[in-house]
Amino acid sequence: MKKYRIALNLFLSMAFALPSLAQVSIAPTSVFMDANGIASLYITNPSETAQEISVSFVFGYPGNDENGSLIMVYGDSVRAGQVGMGDRLRSFPRTFILAPFQQQTVRLQVRPDRSLPPGMQFTRIKVTSSAQTPDIEESATEGVSTQVNFRFDQVIAAFYKNGQTTTGLEIGNVETIQSEGKLNVIPEFTTTGNSPFLGSVSASLKNAAQQTVAQQQQTVALYFSGKRKVEIALPENLPAGDYTVELQYETKRADIPSSDLVQATPITKTVAVRIQ
Questions:
Q1: Is residue 138 part of a domain?
Q2: 158 vs 166: CA distance, rounded Å
Q3: Do 46 and 155 fall into the same domain?
Q4: Within a domain: residue 5?
Q5: pLDDT per residue over 98-140, tens digit each?
Q6: In sequence order, what are the beta bridge partners of 163?
Q7: Total of domains in the chain
Q8: pTM value?
Q9: Which residues form the signal peptide (predicted)?
Q10: Residue 259, Cα to own-chain centre: how many angstroms?
């Protein structure tokens, strides 16, 4: 009887690169086009197996659910038409084979559209990788063998500053929920300017003497108005009583050069909270 080799493809879509699983590495993790609409992406194959690579684009952005938890939003055709790059963004090359332990430079270019108003335009870059599949061969040996190939999607953000760009935040009502040794701080925010607010937030829990007893710092990417939760781990045996939470938002983060970020003055919001 003939032996058939059956290839099964498993698709793993990931919003962020997972080094323990991903078959290739990507740098930088956020791409900013220069004034001419040009940027470079570096894709490296650290494995002993050649990888089939494809580069594509999909419009999406971080949003939030009703509890302020981060979710990715795709399929927003209205905003894609307003602030997306659409088919004006191209990659060179678009598909290629990446040999073991080699790096490929991918050139990105967006064609400017002078008819669009000033502001930050953005999209997502999807890099798909899979081990190069050998030719399927038939033999006279009886039986069936199965080859499993994993396909990984790594998705990163891409930005282009079109003209003068500004950003900022207005912080509204702040909800606090205490549960299981943590304090969830859920501010409502309104984005201002014509660009997403990319930076970081520091949440400090202070006692009556204004001493910081707990703190949480994290990066934020706030594209459109909504809610974004910050979770503070409470120290063990923290005395019950009245405290304050101070939120400070800044347009700086360790993984993106300051020159790429649209700058804004720091925004601070303080809210009273009672710890039970």
A1: no
A2: 17
A3: yes
A4: no
A5: 999 999 999 999 998 888 999 999 999 999 999 987 655 544 4
A6: none
A7: 2
A8: 0.86
A9: 1-22
A10: 19
- Give CA–CA dist 257/28, Å, rounded: 11
Joined tokens for residue 223: 């594209």
The answer to whether the beta carbons of residues 174 and 184 sit under 8 Å apart is no
- Specify whether the CB–CB gap between 16 and 124 falls below 8 A: no
Phi, psi angles (nearest 5°) of residue 82 = -85, -45
CATH number of domain containing 176? 2.60.40.2360
Question: What are 33-60's pLDDT values in tens digits?
Answer: 999 999 999 999 999 999 999 999 999 9
Measured CA to CA, the distance from residue 260 to residue 29 in angstroms comes to 13
Count CB atoms within 10 A of the CB of residue 92: 10
Three-state secondary-structure class, residue 78: helix
Residue type at 191 in one-letter notation: T
C-alpha dihedral (19, 23, 25, 31), degrees to nearest 10 = -100
The answer to whether position 142 is within a domain reads: no
